[in-house]
Amino acid sequence: MIWYMIGLILFLGLFSGFFFLWKLPLIPLTANSERVPPLSIIIPARNEELSLPALLKSIQQQSIEPLEVIVVDDESTDNTAHIAEEFGATVLSASSANLSQKGKSAACWMGAQKAKGDWLVFLDSDTRFVHRDALRSIADVYLKKNQNGLFSIQPFHETEKAYETISVVLNIMVMAGLNRFSLLKDKLPHRGAFGPFLLTTRLQYEKSGGHQVILDSHMDDIELARLYKSKNWPVSVYGGKGSIHFRMFPEGISQLVNGWTKSLLQGAEGTHPLVHLSIGMWITGVIMISILVILSVVYYSSLLAVLLSLCAYLLYCFQFRWLMNKVGRFPLWTMVFPFFFVIAFIGLYIWAFVQVHIIKKVKWRGRDIKT
């Protein structure tokens, strides 16, 4: 009887991995000649001297030229402002703004106030366009949506060092947590948006109140989506593979831990119970099959048990590879260790809970953020 129960749990776990992230829409490559309204690109930046050059260079290479590129220097202590000026961007100093709050939302609001474009594009500093028609392709999709609502993209994650692969499960959960990409598609209530790339018309941004309403939030993607939904405006979300990529936390594992900690718990709020359940079942399946493989090999109860457990484990490995290919480019070897990456995800989630609910403070870019 117990083996039937184990088999059922493993099956449900495998099914759940398909359930919560079945299909992710991407930006199709186009180069239409339809006129794109003047757009302003606003980049909030705090100590981003390593990431900013790749983004600004990719903007310069785009087939459509933005009206302006505004970099809001959020009290950086490195060469962020100097690098932005070298690329011809307009640099604003957040320290000169008379705002009660600091951080990304305040920097975005400051940039939006100075921007002149009909469209506003908010970009994180670690993103980059991957081909010359990326921005035009995005604009074409937004034009087809009648320039209506909040348009967001989660960049495709590029990794270079081994420690960066720790983000793989977290990236998967970020996608799954919006309730939009499951097997049920539009039958679940949608939530949130993706903060690294946000596009909106100036008119709707101003009518919604924009970042001014959410100055005390470091989760502008979730809060802006709520603002737009309160106005009955659509919130569109896409995957960035082939259009916008990023390299998360290139400065080391400490940056990775702090970066995920400041957003992990709030990002999980509002995820539908069915999606939560499917994520829990998938994690349970990964852990259970990993333990079964170890036990079957160590105790070698029977050759059949070893072969069956290994076959089930390989199914989870291939599914893990299928999931990670949706969100980023990770080394091939990562697919063999789903247990390790799931445990890393659980560890970061527990640490985030301690920071947010017990310590009530998280650290990011040398700045303490009270929770």
TrEMBL record:
Presence of keyword Membrane: yes
Classification via InterPro entries: Glyco_trans_2-like (IPR001173), Nucleotide-diphossugar_trans (IPR029044)
UniProt xrefs under SUPFAM superfamilies: Nucleotide-diphospho-sugar transferases
Record flagged with keyword Glycosyltransferase: yes
A Gene Ontology BP annotation from the UniProt entry: carotenoid biosynthetic process
A Pfam family matched in the record: Glycos_transf_2
MF term (GO), any: glycosyltransferase activity
Biological pathway: Carotenoid biosynthesis; staphyloxanthin biosynthesis; staphyloxanthin from farnesyl diphosphate: step 4/5
Residues covered by the Glycosyltransferase 2-like domain: 40-143
Gene3D superfamilies reported in the protein's UniProt record: Spore Coat Polysaccharide Biosynthesis Protein SpsA, Chain A
Location in the cell: Cell membrane
Cellular component GO terms held in the UniProt record: plasma membrane
Membrane-spanning segments: 274-295, 302-324, 330-354
Alphabetic keyword roster: Carotenoid biosynthesis, Cell membrane, Glycosyltransferase, Membrane, Transferase, Transmembrane, Transmembrane helix
Function: Catalyzes the glycosylation of 4,4'-diaponeurosporenoate, i.e. the esterification of glucose at the C1'' position with the carboxyl group of 4,4'-diaponeurosporenic acid, to form glycosyl-4,4'-diaponeurosporenoate. This is a step in the biosynthesis of staphyloxanthin, an orange pigment present in most staphylococci strains.
Family from the record: Belongs to the glycosyltransferase 2 family. CrtQ subfamily.
Protein name per UniProt: 4,4'-diaponeurosporenoate glycosyltransferase
Organism: Alkalibacterium olivapovliticus
